[in-house]
Design goal:
Blueprint (H helix, E strand, L loop, with lengths): L1 H39 L1 E9 L4 H12 L4 E7 L4 E7 L5 H10 L3 E4 L9 H14 L1
């Protein structure tokens, strides 16, 4: 009788453990579906970030922006003073990201197409033009 009872408990536990695995597969697939739906709403925006002077500044901005929900990717470059952020527009807005960068201590604004940044290459070109005009 004790053997039957042990076998029944073992089988019950085995069945319950198997059911749990199926449930987690369902949860994973629904999480993947949510991520795929979020990918459709992805937006990439460049921010001009005045005040960045080193790689530590880049890391600070990346760390602060990554704390926001809906952030997919953040790339920051102190040389060009540009931070490029890919995010789920239904979860977080460009204004939220801009405010986060500003709160981190940098002046941030959306870098619209046609707006030039003060990269070292452009500065060299400007200084060369001034020399040739003299």
């Amino acid at each position: 009788m004790k053997n039957y009872f042990g076998i029944i408990i073992f089988c019950t536990l085995f069945i319950l453990a198997g059911c749990n695995k199926n449930g987690s597969k369902t949860e994973n697939s629904s999480a993947q579906n949510t991520e795929q739906n979020t990918d459709k709403n992805l937006q990439t925006v460049e921010f001009k970030c005045d005040g960045m002077t080193c790689t530590g500044c880049e890391e600070t901005i990346i760390k602060k922006v990554n704390k926001l929900d809906g952030i997919k990717d953040v790339k920051s470059d102190y040389k060009t003073k540009i931070t490029k952020v890919t995010f789920a527009s239904g979860i977080v807005s460009a204004a939220d990201i801009e405010n986060t960068i500003t709160k981190a201590g940098y002046h941030a604004e959306i870098n619209t197409p046609g707006t030039h940044t003060n990269s070292s290459t452009e500065q060299k070109e400007v200084s060369t033009e001034k020399k040739t005009k003299k």
